[in-house]
Amino acid sequence: MAQDKQELMDFILDHYENPRNAGTIEGPDKKLISDADICQNGGNPGCGDIVTICLKVDNGKIVDIKFEGEGCIVSQAGTSIITEKVLGKDLEDVLAMGPEMMTEILGEELTLSRPKCATLGLATVKLAITQLRRDEMKKANNIE
Ligand code: FES
User: Fold this and answer.
1) Which of the chain's termini has less CB crowding within 10 Å, N or C?
2) Confidence class of residue 2 from pLDDT cuts 50, 70 and 90?
């Protein structure tokens, strides 16, 4: 975690300018068909900023994650940061992550003043997991 305000700002800007896990999950033949198990859109209606997060899941863990988005520095950097945090994690552990995770990373000042920006990425990852489970349940029960 960043030591002081300047380090924190540099850390956030670096993630905004060089987003980690940016892009899409390619199909096995590297063609346009995605190999993702789920792609989920998330957004803040108030400002129109959006992210799309795609997950590949194996044995209850996130084995690949990619995102694309447009929006403010905090939302896009926060999403980049969270993709690194959840990669390799159990779905249950990710679902248990709350906004305090973003407070720990981005600091109290920023997270409290811009909670929706700070948690957009985390909220969208959790929504993707919930949707994936719904889809799997529907498939198991032959519900369209
Ligand atoms: Fe839109 Fe930050 S101002 S997510």
Assistant:
1) C
2) very low
